[in-house]
Amino acid sequence: MLYQAHCHHITGQVLVPAYRGTLMATRNDNTMWSGLFSITPSSGQTLQAQIRQAIVAAILDRQISVKMPLPSCRVLAKKLGVARGTVVLAFQQLVDQGFLVARERRGHFVNPDVLTTPDQPQPVSASDQQQVDWCSRTIVSARDLPKPEKPQNWQSSTYPFIYGQFDPSLFPTAEWRECNRMALAVLEINNWASDMFEQDDPLLVEQIQARMLPKRGIFARPEEIMITLGAQNALYMLAAMLMSKGTRVAMENPGYPDARSIFRLAGADVVPVANDNQGLIVSQLPENCQFAFTTPSHQCPTMVSMTASRRKELLEHAAQTDMIVIEDDYDSQLLDDAPEPALKSLDRTGRVVYVGSLSKTLAPGLRVGYIVASPDLIAELRAFRRFVLRHPPANNQRSVALFLSLGHHDTLVRKLAAAFGERRERIIQSVEQHLPDWSVGQAKSGTSLWLKGPNSIDTALLAASAEKRGVLVEPGAIFFAGDNKPANFMRLGISSIPLRRIDKGVVELAASAAEIRSR
User: Fold this and answer.
1) What pLDDT does 407 receive?
2) What's 355's DSSP letter?
């Protein structure tokens, strides 16, 4: 009761002197307090948390004087349109954390002890600094490498034909929350809060070993599995550990652009190799290639699945030439009706390094992937990982492990497979109807469509024009190696666009294509 009495303090108007640049204001200066508090019900955070964040930010930014009382709980609750108890609890927690002090009959004030840190030094202007040419000191300029054509605001687009993003309507929000709550239980926190630099969450490794890999025909021991921050992190560590200047890496063309860039950053010479409707053309692999990178499940970006005979041919070639195969099981978790087994499952010589992830099923933002390889390589990668990021966040590992162990992922895969199958069928029909002069790739599955347009069209211009109509597509040139890249290819993703919008989106895309060709 004593604390609640603090919230009934007098709200008379008292002039307050400015403090270190803070505004001179009265306790009820609505202009000032309106600028400090902005409550958004749709932010995803509780109202209490938003109030605490706003007050802490204002305190640390020194926008509130230590001599200035905050509005009373009653006044602030009325102003924000929230229950008074919400503000009471927010103030109480800030008192407990030491940001505020409650003074009898006077109200709540900023705790002066919070502001005893020395002032930040003023930044030195660029003209006062001795300029360093950092670009000349980099071995390879990462900024000059191709960037993915994926707008950050894709969710605000009406027709987002963007690959690799998730559909919020299909995301298992309730199940994911359940697993996160379970991971925050006291006993679970004791499991994941310690430094696990030499290991991964054993439950997650167990679930990948028992639930994920057998579906791809892979049976691995725990010492053959390492968790990564998604597939790209896995490829980066493999490149950093195994490649150097002059290393020759054969890679599909068109192919995964970020993999090509990662190998180039390691100093490797990336040799493009053509694909056909059976996958990577093994007979065109050049001599003296130490590595071959491939996406055999659903080739990036054509979505073609490498045939069984081509897989056998590639493995035989690798054994004969002492070549290592890096298999990115791209877009593989949404299994086809009769999927080909992973290359790793057919490997009898230990030459295949398998890379997988949960990005295409659970969510790309979670950054959960894994490498399956021989124990010696995994041990080296684990030691290297310690210097790069120590280990992926253990709380996320435990949440994903619980999600898998409770069967939520299996349920999600079935749900996504049904939804995406319907969307794929619809988009193919729509493209054939509204873009008859475009050829659709021969892939029978996958979460995107690879299109080839008339030779006269530039899909970069088409993408810019279509974006004005609310249609987002990916120009295909980025997937090709070399200077003379064809400009008439594009990729349409189906994972993030609702079924009901596909037809209208393709109609708008066709209108943009007609507009481009008429120029």
Assistant:
1) 92
2) E
For residue 335, the model assigns a pLDDT of: 60
State phi, psi for 250 to the nearest 5 degrees. Answer: -80, 140
Confirm if 511 and 469 have CB atoms less than 8 A apart. Answer: yes
Pairwise CA distance, residues 279 & 307, whole Å: 7
Terminal alpha carbon distance of the chain: 75
pLDDT at 187: 74
> Any idea which residue has 């071995």 for tokens?
139
Residue 17: Cβ within 10 Å count: 9
The token pair that represents 518 in the structure block: 């008429």
254 prior amide bond cis, ω within 30: yes
SS3 185: coil
DSSP 243: -
User: Interhelix angle for 173-183 vs 408-434, to 10°?
Assistant: 150
Residues of the chain scoring pLDDT < 50: 1-6, 8-27
Taking the CB of residue 68, how many other CB atoms lie within 10 A of it?
24
pLDDT for the residue numbered 309: 95
Specify the pTM: 0.77
Quote the pLDDT of residue 34.
59
SS3 101: strand
Beta bridge mates, 491: 450, 474
Radius of gyration of the chain (CA): 28
